[in-house]
Amino acid sequence: MAVVREAAGALRGLGNDPAGLVVACRRLVEKHPTCGPLWWLCAHIVTAAEPYAVARRLAGELQADTTPEVLAGVLPAEARVCVIGWPDITAEAIITRGDVTVLGVEVDEATPSFVRHLSRSGVIAESVAASASGAAVLVSDLVVVEALAAADGQLLAVAGSRAAASVAYCSGVPVLAVVGRGRCLPVTAFDSLVARLTAVDAPWEVPVDVVPLALCSEVVGPYGVAPAAEASLAAECPSAPELLRRAPN
Fold it and tell me: In this structure, what is the dihedral angle of CA atoms 156, 160, 166, 167, given to the nearest 10 degrees?
């Protein structure tokens, strides 16, 4: 994920300034509240004895994430797949496979670009209006929900994901939860992300959904595939109370 690699490089450039490092990390997670891997990176950095070495190592780990390869290996041959928004890991896996058809549910202005991106890569893909997401699910072989972050039996995903997963669950359509490297957070961090993103007067304008893992059939991650009922979403980073406080203006 480019934003995390860029953040790791920027944080390494701060030099020997522990206080400045904490403030910079707080500002990063505030600016990118939907990016679980960024919280994972910053939580490791602010609790590390050698933060710059840790930043370098974690950027490499994210680059080496094998989740796209695992997902590409488990997608059924010539399947019709329903996805929500522009899921980066899922897109990479679909392009690698090349034999699946994609129904991309439009939840924001990025979805048509996602469909064009797939089409340019030789994948048959079609945009579906959000109002028709239920119909898209019913004609699909499976639904893929990609986690922005995860913890304690819950996934944070783009808005529209919970509705699609619920229709699929009630209709017997399999739901794959894709949880890439760096997305499993401590419960306190996950709750903080959710609170920041849902602090609006109109709940229907929230850009994310909290999706219960119980709606999913299997979880796909860097270590393989597991039934959702048996999957672990154990935190991949330490708890970092420093990140729960707001950065000074």
Answer: -160
In this structure, are residues 35 and 232 in contact, taking their beta carbons and an 8 Å threshold? no
SS3 115: helix
**CA-CA distance, 205 to 207, in Å (whole number)?**
6
Phi-psi region of 237 (alpha: psi -120 to 50; beta: other; left: phi over 0): beta
Distance (Å) of CA 76 to CA 79, 174, 228, 244: 5, 11, 18, 41
* pLDDT confidence of residue 206: 92
**What sign does the CA torsion over 185, 191, 196, 200 have?**
positive
Please state the φ and ψ torsions of residue 104, each to the nearest 5 degrees. -95, 115
Query: pLDDT per residue over 133-178, tens digit each?
Result: 999 999 999 999 999 999 999 999 999 999 999 999 999 999 999 9
Helix, strand, coil distribution of the chain in percent, nearest 5? 50, 20, 35
What domains lie within the chain, and their CATH numbers?
2-64 (no CATH), 67-227 (3.40.50.10470)
Tell me what the mean pLDDT of segment 74-103 comes to.
Answer: 95
Instruction: State the pLDDT confidence band at 54, using cuts at 50, 70 and 90.
Output: confident
Identify the H or E element spanning 6.
Answer: helix 2-12
